[in-house]
Amino acid sequence: MSDRIRERRKLIEVALPLTAINKESERDKKLSSGHPTTLHYWWAPRPLPACRAIVFAALVDDPSNRPDLFPDEVSQNAERHRLFALIEELVRWESRRNERVLQAARAEIARATNEAPPTLFDPFCGRGLIPLEGQRLGLEVVAADLNPVAALIAKALLEIVPRFLGRQPVNPEARKHRLVRAGGAEGLADDVEYYGRLVLDRARTKLRPFFPEYIVTPELAGERPDLRPLIGRAVTVMGWLWARTVRCSNPACGFPIPLVGSFWLSQRGPQKWWLEPELDRRSKSIRFNIRWGDGQAPPPTKRPNTGGTFRCLACGEDSDERYLEEEGRASRIGKMLMACIADGGRSHGRIYLPATKEQEKIALSANPGWRPDYPIPDYSQAMPTVRHGVKTWADFFTERQLLTLDTLAQQIRAVHEVVRGDAVAAGWSDDDKPLEARGTGARAYADAIVGVLGLILGRQVNRTCAFSFWHSGKGTIEQPFAQQGFQ
Length: 487
Description:
There is one protein chain. The chain is an alpha+beta fold. Helices cover 38% and strands 15% of the residues. It has helices spanning 3-7, 18-29, 48-59, 73-90, 99-112, 129-136, 148-163, 172-176, 186-207, 218-221, 321-329, 345-348, 357-364, 399-425, 442-463, and strands at residues 120-122, 141-143, 214-215, 234-247, 256-258, 264-266, 272-280, 285-293, 310-311, 318-319, 334-343, 350-354, 469-471, 476-478. The longest helix has 27 residues, at 399-425.
């Protein structure tokens, strides 16, 4: 871009239709399907409408700087409002694939840059949303990030998806029904969904013994009206609610203290559910009964506003954070299963079931073939968990979680040859050129599908870990990254 063009004031330096941009940016935050940010979790997601508007307005001249075309204030305002109207249309979610609107924006950029738009360079791109919008507006982009996770997400968005735009799906189901996807990344998305289901089905077969169903017995149903229609049926458990435990610091007590911040199971709707601890002083053990109604859950063992102090349910003695750290460093942090959360289908919704010895025994019997036993750097802010006995990356997971994730990873690797074979059967070139070598054939496509499935597995890791927690207000399993570190 010439110096003369650089010296012109751009639209972003003078005025923008902020109301329209803010409105669409607010809407953008609420989108939960089809949005690039759903590919993988990363911090500080920039609203796509704002990114698109900023890139456009940073390249297009403000009319006041073009007196040869707009000599007076009236004509300048008229031109500015024309550009505003284009931006207002451009930032709408529906316009991301509206070629008429995008071509109009690209034409304005080309006109402002004498048909030689600059390369967009983002050295700290995060997940790559600003370069993504640059690509959408027809720019060449160069993006990088220090964090390999961010760089991988950006690579998927900026390289993998654009390379296979407009291609038809290769999976046999789509070819059998002669399914044709129109333009864009629909073919790639269809294949990701198909091969993702294949990975899941294969993994389920191998993992089924470690995820038993829960049989609803007459004894269990008892006085619970929600379980009576399910007597004799097996329900699918969707979550196991565990608590980390530490033995009470009172030498005369010896009871385990469940380290929990809430005994609530559900606070949604008029019917509330919670756990009520029941102590067996003879065996010094705790079981949890499930209660429901309009009452209140017992106070948690965690003392409010104390950081890491927990009270014993048996003797009331407090165990402070220093004691917990000592027990953690000595590998004396235990765990207990408190309850199971099952899926009762549309008619019953979430079902809260008491923990059983069988469920606990099967969960603890898992033996993963691989463990990420790499030490965690003892960073006091980002990784305070190290002080509580979480010394390696494997310690972030239960044995069954590790087995699940390892099995999924194996099946993702195994599906590579399946995708490649299906692509060849669909008429793709089998040139043996990988994705990293800018390949566009069957092998590169298999690399792309496996790469995207790997990112999906990364999202699953964020939920399938020992630090995920049950959100009683929403009835969902939540990820542990409340901040940029584990708390």
